[in-house]
Model the fold of this input.
Amino acid sequence: MTQASNHSSTASVTHIVGARPNFPKAAPVIAALANRSVTQRLVHTGQHYDDALSEAFFRELDLPEPDVNLGVGSGSHATQTADLMRALETEFIASNPRAVVVYGDINSTLAAALVAVKMEMPVAHVEAGLRSFDRTMPEEINRVVTDQLAGLLLTTSPEGLTNLTNEGVDPTRVAFVGNPMIDTLLKNRPRFSGSEIIARLGIDGAYAVATLHRPANVDSHAAAAQIVDALRACSDRLPLIVPLHPRGRQALAAAGLDDMSRVFVIDPLSYLNFMGLVQGAAAVITDSGGVQEETTVLGIPCLTLRPNTERPITITNGTNRLVDYENLATELDRALARSQDGSQIQVPPLWDGHAGERIADALVDWMTTA
Ligand code: UD1
Done:
């Protein structure tokens, strides 16, 4: 059992995490449950295995060592999901959890939910109810299916309940608890540190950060070429720092990403370094889900290179704008020109640093009946 375990236990919860975006969501939930009479087990599926995408987060976020790492690794969707399911079934047979908690929308989330419900184990989904309504996104499929399977749906944003009830979900299964990733942001904000990286790159003055890893943007050479052209136009305005996920590296390099003088391509960063860079940026260009939320809370203009978002509250309440390859540079000009006094930002409800506590309360209540 994890260091978060409490030995006077009333129930045993297994958390499933697998990839970079899961870790800042799970950390506050595990910390909050450690103060309640719940024994916890932390299972890392091994979907992400590079130090920068995995262990670095455990070190920085005070996450307990996983009790087990299933070492599943990469593969096509079918292969990876099947490998995850086989490994998780073995894990659940051995540990027989009272309930399983899954996070976000990655393949590990879907695989764990599917295995657990078929073993008649209650499943809770943290970050339920988000919808892009774009079924070409693997994450959208994972969200829709996981939410049908889970018994407790913990939503980060009010529209989650509408999305879920429109899909026939019984609203009594839904609890609006807020955003645990923002707990992690607010807790660690004093430790954010980007200045060393900026100094190492020799950047003096304003810069933007760009992150790209969605299959639609980086898997094809045609898309990669269009992105590189758009980033080239942006780099005429200000230097760009691009911490690059391994997924996009090959196609973006072939399209010339590494050959531009004001585009600094670097390895993926740890949480504190990445958030430090974002906090100091004049703007952020991204296709990540989490970064849309983090920039909203930090008040940093965010340009999302996607035709849709499952997080519309970051547009209505925050700094986010959807952009495409053609208008990225002009939207960057607009974002840089807009007043940055933050007065137009309304931090979404319950993104207040206490979502982990609310999730822990909801889990404990639910486990008495589930
Ligand atoms: C996954 C999630 C995505 C999330 C992203 C965050 C799914 C379907 N996608 O995408 O929702 O936004 O994580 O980073 O679950 N690789 C490495 N080292 C690693 C892990 C992956 O080099 O530690 C490379 C491998 O070539 C692998 C590729 O990245 O094939 C994709 O990894 P995978 O976990 O399948 O999906 P991500 O693109 O990381």
The longest helix spans residues 77-95.
